[in-house]
Structures are given as C-alpha cells and as structure tokens.
Amino acid sequence: MTPVLQITDLSKNYGRLKAVDGLNLTVEKGNVYGLLGPNGSGKTTTLGIVLDIIKTPTGTYRWFGEEPGHHSRKRIGATLETPYFYPYLSAVNNLRIVARIKEKPFDKIDEALKTVDLYHRKNDKFRTYSLGMKQRLAIAAALVGEPEVLILDEPTNGLDPLGIAEIRNLVNRIANQGMTIILASHILDEVQKMCSHVAVLRTGKILFNGNVAEALNENDIIELSSNNLALLSNALNSFEGIQEIRKEGSLLVIKVKKDINPSDVNEFLIEKGIVLSHLSLRKKTLEQQFIEVLQS
Amino acid sequence: MLRLLNIEWEKLRSYRAFWVMVVLYVFVLFSMIFAVPALLDYIADHAKENLALKAFKAIVFNFPDIWQNIAFVASMRGFIKIFLAILVMIFITNEFSFLTIRTNILNGMSRGEFITGKLLVIFFLTLLSTLAVFFAGMYLGFTQSPVRSVSAVFSKMHYLLAYFLEVFTYLTFALMIGVLIRKTGFAVIVLLLYLIIEPIIQYYVPDDFDKYLPLNAMNHLIWSPNTSLIKVKTPEFNMDFQEFISWADAGICFLYVIIFISAIYLFLRKKDL
After folding, report:
1. Rounded Cα distance, A220 and A254, in Å
2. Which ipTM was obtained for this model?
3. Taking the model in full, what pTM does it have?
4. Are B16 and A88 within 8 A, CB to CB?
C-alpha cells in the first residue's frame, strides 16, 4: 500500500546550520506517528518542508505517493507552531476560509467546532480567544477538510494542565477513529500517551525510529541466545514470568513481568539444563535515547 | 478563479476597517469630483475678471470631454489614488503580520493562487473606482453639458478604460511594495517616499527616459484635461493638450503590470513563510 507520507534523504540548511540532515521517514495509514525531540531538533522544519511553507530543501517527499503540490495539501489537516487566523474574523468565518481553500462544504464546520468544544464561542472573534482555544480552533480547522492525515505540531504547547488533558483526549478520540496522525512534540510523556510510532530527532537527524509500545514498555526486555533456539523457546514457554516471546535474528527477545530480572531467567534455564550463549537486558530504549538527546 | 474570489470575499466580507476605508475613498472621490463645479462658481463669484472662468466652466463638463477631464482629476498623482493603495497595502501586509498566508498555504493554496486572489481584489477595487468615476461623469454631464447626444456621451469613454489601466497598474505597484516589505507602516512610508523620490530620479535621467519611470508612465496615460479651448491658439495662450491616448503609453503600463506581478511571484516562490 502507498504510504501516507514518505520522506527520503530530506535536508535543509540555513547557512552552516543543518536544520534537517538526511532524514528518512515513512508514515503508513493508521499510524499515530510521534516526532520527538527537543526544541530546535528539526521537527517543525521537517513539517514545514512537507507542507511547502519552507522552501529549497534537498531530498524528496511524497504525500499519498504524489509529486509535491498544493492539491495533496487539501487532503491534509495541519497545524504548524502557533495557530494563525484572521483576528478580526469569528471562528466560523475563519473556518469558512479553510473550507473554501480545501474545496469542502461548510456543513462540517459546526461539527468540527463541537468536536473541539468551541461551538458556544463560534461567533466570537479570533482575537478574543485564549491560547488554548486558539490551539483547539487550529485542530478544528484541520478537521474541517475531512483530512486523510492530521499533522499536529506541539498541540499542547503553552497550555495549562487542564488544556493539555483536553487536547490529549481529543487526539486520542480522533486517533481511535482510525485517522493517521503525525504529532511533533518535545514531551516524552505526550508521545508515549498518544502515539503508536515514534521517531526521535536530534539536530535534524533521526536517532530512533519504531514502535512506541515496544520502545517504551515499562517492563524490561531481555535478549537471549543459545545454540538451539527451538529448545530454548520451548523451555521459556513454561517460564511463568514471561509476557511475550519474539525471535529477532539469532536472538530470542522476551518481555518479562515486573520484578523479574535476567538472573531469574538464567537460574530457570540452568535448572532445565540449557546453556546460554547470550544474555542481556534491553531497558526502555526510547527514554534512554531521549535522555541522551536532552543531555547532549 | 471563482474559488479564489470566494476565498478573498470570506476574508474581507466582515472586515469592518476595510469597508470603512472603501466608503471613505468613494466619498472623498465623489466630493473631489463634485467640488469642481462648486469651486469654479465660488471663484467666479469672487473674481473681478471671471469671464474666462465662466467660459471654462461652461465647457469643462461637456460631453464627451468630461470623461477625459474627470478621469484626469480622479487619477492625479499621489492624490486620491493613495487611499486605494494604502488599502491594498493593508490587506496584503495583514497576511504577513498575522501570518495567515502560512495558514492559507498549508491548507492547500499554492503561492500562485494566493497572488491571483489578491490581484482579483485589486481588479474589483479598480472596477469600483472606475464605476464611481463613470457615475459621477454621467451625473455632472447630464446636469451641466448642453450636448447630450448618444455619440457625444459615449465617444470619449475610452478615457475610463485608460483610467482603469492606470489605477490597476498603481495598485499592483502598491501590492508589490506590500509583498516585498511586509510591514504595513513601513510599506506605506516607502510608497509615500517613492512619490517624492521618483521626481528626483526624473531630474537626473535623460528627458527621453522620463516617461518610462513607473509613476510617470501611469500618469502619462491621461496627462492633461481637454477642452475645446485647445483649438484657440494664440501667442499668449499656447499650451499642449492631450488629444488621444497613446498605445505606447498603455503598453508601458501593461509591461509594468507584468513586471510587478513577476516580481511578486519570484519573491514568494522561494520564500519561507
């Protein structure tokens, strides 16, 4: 199936500064993809390039397999940094402009405003809105075009805890309807709670790319190997502290319950008469990666 | 086209400041045109030697010369047109200061569509201005002119087309300054400064080149009023009056419109928003 977004070798330089540096990313339909990285790591620049706001990058990107062009943007609902609307126009009138640009009927406007809980303020001018309301209106604007993919850039930035919770619930609700979402954030917790996949960025490069559930599992992951993997696998099946067994090349990767450590596993296997050639603990990859990112 | 017009209409429809300025412009334009006969009467009443003035008033509003005369008054350099130019600069620089151009683009407009939308607004503002001049001319002509034959009424109406071209070129110029400078106040200052700077440039360039300077080129389309007085040429009264609109002048204006639009497009094409 054609990916929703395919980015190949994307780079953007500002003079000597490499804002995006050889970035590759594939977002499949139904993914809730988090772009995680500290401020200045290239998240917004990357989104800006694929939305045609930032010009003259090198490398390519394809939306829905199409050559870059404004028609594919009509199928995308996007927010980028702070929401920008006409301050002298009401929420409804701002959304009418969006619908006109996207060539969509006006009848989704009320629904979108209800979804983000702004319906009761729909005739108020944009300039009277609080930051939280502006962020929510930006999401409503993204929804008006009935998009196939939603791009949210730091949607909870600058919000109070209640506002953050509201946005997260909203995104989870939309994601549960099967919408493809790309979410840029510098907050690990946010990505952990909302995303299915994550790419960790630092200085324009992707450090880690993969499944969130795996990367962020609270339980430990243990790698094992022996001369006979089948035998090892059979033996492990009878070990009670295991949640999941998976084969990765010449390794068996097991997810263990809390309080189980590698020595417990080893002890169990020795009793079964199996000798290991490899035993190691893989711990919370994403968090480690992210902390490294933040510390450097 | 209709989609782009609809988008611009949504932006301006309930923008009160915009409509206040449009109404103000039409009001000032009308008062200027309608003030001319009253002013002539007033001066004539207070002057000792008023025969020439009375004669002038008796012919200046005559069909068909009235079209040239009021188009000349309405398009005078750096005068009433500035209202419209400032209006254009406000609505284009707004898009940059509110960063709504970015919202437009990421929602699915191309940069070319964005520019086309703005040119459509300029087209309709110019049309509005031309219609205002047309109705003022009709009213003044039918109240003041002794000649009212169909051929007389319509024969010099191409001066309205020239007026349209002049205003459209001027507003495209304002649009370009707005796009290049992007700050409302600064853009207005640059336009006003240019009104002063161009005559200075004109002083230093060869005379043959004068009419190629942008503001001169626009003004040269309708460069003088016309009355039947021009037929009277005596050693004391020997002035040139415009008798026709030159295709070359119109061509220069067209060329400037293309230059201004290209400059806007080339600037926005590679611009990060």
Report:
1. 9
2. 0.88
3. 0.84
4. yes
